[in-house]
Every structure is written in structure tokens, then in C-alpha cells.
Amino acid sequence: MAQNPAGSSTLAPDEVERFAALADTWWTLDGEFGQLHKLNPVRIAFIRDHVLAHFGRTADRSAGSSQGAAGGGRTGEARPFAGLSMVDLGCGGGLLTEPMARLGADVTGVDAEAKAIGVAAAHAAAQGLEIDYRCALPEALAGEGRSFDVVLAMEIIEHVADIDAFVAACAQLLAPGGAMVLSTLNRTLKALALAKIGAEYVLRWVPPGTHDWRKFVRPDELSRALRRNGLRVRAFRGITYNPLADRWALSEDLSINYLAFVTRSAIGGRNRAT
Is 8 exposed, middle or buried (0-12, 13-18, 19+ CB in 10 A)? Predict the structure, then answer.
């Protein structure tokens, strides 16, 4: 089993403090997390399609569409993730955790920021959703011996203190034969100009200082870290923004935002790369 480097921790106190100041705005559509709300249908579609294909499942797209899941679809919605255990690392206020629960997964939401967990738990209760929310670090959860069919690590790896420790914890949490989905920002000059300077100082989508460009992760760096922990990237997809339509979409352009679909072999234990 992959182990966290000795004495390492994923906790970045300055990052936790920064997001604590925004905790009350997680579910405000025109607030600091407004772009995440707009991005959610794209993230959900990528997760849904790849997870269903990996586990050999199908879904009624008319009932369980990404738009319906993002909008909180009600009765009659397909639950293609039923029977799958899932952990959403860095879940924040639960923007992605709730759609996963509506798609039928048995979801645990984990975040290092207590106020965000409080917001997430209260919102889920108001929606009648059963989600196990925990204020914890990924390595603490892994230390309990927990494992999940699906691990989500969306927009979090660029905020942790130690990327290697974080990936190692993710690997420990992922059951043999399981799947992981990650999303992050590429460390390119284009990402510096648009995702850092443009998003924070020009468009004011997020507060200045939200991201540190030096902590953005290139796809090759992510792939190597995953392979060291017995995991294999099956697909990379970019996410691009259309300012005229004010809409996000999947693309082949990995130069700014990108997603990765990752799997663990079901054969040969948890330390062997497939």
C-alpha cells in the first residue's frame, strides 16, 4: 500500500483560512463560487460518463442528466451510481457532493475547513440528502483504513501543502478496481495570465490571492505522481470557457483547466501500476 512520506501533511493553513472567509457564500450563485456553479454540469458529465463506463453501467440520460443532477433533480431521476461508495475530497460546501448523492452514490464529503463542512451539512439536510460530511484531512481518513470505489479530488490539489502526500493518501483511499477523478490548473503562462491574473484581478471571479501559480500542476507531473502510487491516468480532458456564451465546456485544450480520469488495477494489490 502506498504510504504518505514520513512527517508530511496535506494541510496548508493559509489555504484553509482563505476559504474559511468565504464559507457562507458556497451556495450563492452570484457569489465567490459562482463560476463553480456554472462549471458543475461539465464536471458532473465527465465524472458520470467515465465512472459509468468504468463500472460497466448505463444511465437514462433523460432522467439523470448532468443538468438535472447539477440543478438538484427531484423524483424520477436516475440513480446510476447506486451501490458505489464515493469520497469527495476538498468538498467545500458540497456543490459537487450533492449531485453525486442524487446520482445514487453513498457519499462521504471531506474538507479541512470546519465552516465549509457546517454549510455543506446544513444544505444537504435541507435538501433531504444523506451525506457523511467530515472535517478531516485525506491522510487521516486513509489512516482509518477507509476505502472507496470512487475518489473525487476536484480543484483541490493546487491548494494542498504536499502534492506527493496528497496523491499517496488518495491512492490509499481508492479500492482495488476503483476510479478517481481529478481536476486542477496547468502551470503554463496561459494559465498564469487567464486563471490567475485574469480571474482574480481583472474579472474578479475569485478574491485576489486565491491561487498560487507556482502550485499549479502540469499533466506530466500529475501522471508521474499517480504512477508512483500504483495509479494510471486513462484520460485527460481540458475545460475551456466561452465568454460570449458565459459557458464552460470540455475540450482537448489542457493548457489552463483540465480533468483526469484515473484507475487502480483490480489485480495484484494496491501498489502495482496497471
Answer: middle
Flag whether pLDDT at 69 surpasses 60: no
pLDDT in tens, 109-141: 999 889 999 999 999 999 999 999 999 999 999
Q: What are phi and psi of 225, to 5 degrees?
A: -60, -40
pLDDT the model gives residue 68? 39
pLDDT band at 22 (very low <50, low <70, confident <90, very high): low
- How far is the C-alpha of 159 from the C-alpha of 182, rounded, in Å? 13
Domains in the chain (CATH in brackets) are 13-264 (3.40.50.150)
Q: Are 165 and 139 in contact (CB under 8 A)?
A: yes
pTM of the entire structure? Answer: 0.82
Angle formed at CA 216 by CA 210 and CA 217, multiple of 5 degrees: 150
